Amino acid sequence: MTDRILRSVHSGDRFHWVGDGFYVTQLLPGGRELQEAADPFLLMDYHPVKDYPPTDRPRGVGAHPHRGFETVTLAFEGAVQHHDSTGGGGVIYPGDAQWMTAARGILHKEYHEPEWARQGGRFHMMQLWVNLPSADKMGDPGYQALTAESMGKVKLPGGGTVTLYAGELDGETGPARTHTPIELWDLQLAADETAELTVPDGHTLMLFVLDGHLDTVGGRIGREQLGLFDRSGDRLRITAPETGARAVLLGGRPIGEPVVFYGPFAMTSEAEIVQAIEDFNAGTFGHLD
Ligand code: MN
C-alpha cells in the first residue's frame, strides 16, 4: 500500500448569499491549478451551521438553468425542497442527498422546505457541482433522491463510521448512479482515532473538514478547510484529535477534458457555451413556474 500525501490546504472565500436562503463560502473553484486538481469536481459551496428564524415565505433561490454537469446537495441539518423542469422534485432532510443531472439542460429552484421554514432552526448543507464527460453533457437530465437509509455504511475498527453516498469501500457501495467513478463519503472519526481507508490509485482526492481537524501524511487539515491530495497512492491515513472529527471525502477519476465555465453552464468550448445561452434563450430547457 502507498500512502496518499497531502499536497495543499485551502480555505473558502468570503461568505455570500445564493438567493436569500443559502449563506455559503466557495471552496472550489479556486485558482486554475485547483480546478485541474479537483477534476471532476467543478464547484463546492459550503453552508455552515446557521440559525434561520421562522417564516411563512421560504427562503431560497428561484428558477435558474444548468447545463453540462450535475448538482449534488448534501443536507446535514434543515430541509431543502427542489423542483425542476423535468417534473422532478423532492425534499431532502438530514442525511439525505439530492443528485441532479442537468446534462443538456434543466431549470430548477431550490428553497427551504415550507414546513421546516415555518419552524425555523439550524441549517447546514453542502452543494457540489460534478462535471460530466463531453459525451454525456447533452444527455438526458435526471434526478436521484438519495435517502439516509440507502447510504452505504462501513464501521471502522477504531470506532468511526464511513457513510457512502457514492463509490465503494470495503465491499460497501453508495447508492448514487454516477457517469464516471466518484467517491463521496462522510467520515466520522472517534476521539484520537486513526483510520486507514483504501482509495483508488490515480483518482482525485480531497477532504473537507466539518468538525475537528485531521492529521494526515504531509500535514493537517483544519475545520472548514479543503485538503487536496496527490493522485498517487491507494491508502489514506487520517487521525482525529481528542474531540473526534468529521469530514466529507470528495474523490473521482479525473475526466481530463477542457472546462469552459460560464455562470450555470460548464462545457468544453466557447462555442458550446454560446450554444447553451442560445438554447436557454430559445426555451429548450423547458418551463418552470
Ligand atoms: Mn442550481
Structure write-up:
With 289 residues, the chain is mainly β. It has three helices and 26 strands. The strands form six sheets. A seven-stranded antiparallel beta sheet has the order 1-22-19-24-17-14-13, with no helix packed on it. It is globular and about 55 Å long. 39% of the residues are buried. It binds manganese (II) ion (MN). The site of manganese (II) ion has 5 residues, from strand 5 and strand 10.
Top keywords for this entry?
289 residues, seven-stranded antiparallel sheet, binds manganese (II) ion, mainly beta, single chain
Architecture blueprint of SSEs:
Blueprint: E1 6-11, E2 16-18, E3 22-28, H1 32-38, E4 41-52, E5 60-66, E6 69-77, E7 80-84, E8 89-92, E9 97-101, E10 106-112, H2 114-119, E11 121-131, E12 142-146, E13 152-155, E14 161-166, E15 168-169, E16 172-173, E17 182-189, E18 194-198, E19 204-211, E20 214-216, E21 219-221, E22 225-229, E23 235-239, E24 245-252, E25 260-262, E26 265-267, H3 270-281
The structure holds manganese (II) ion (MN).
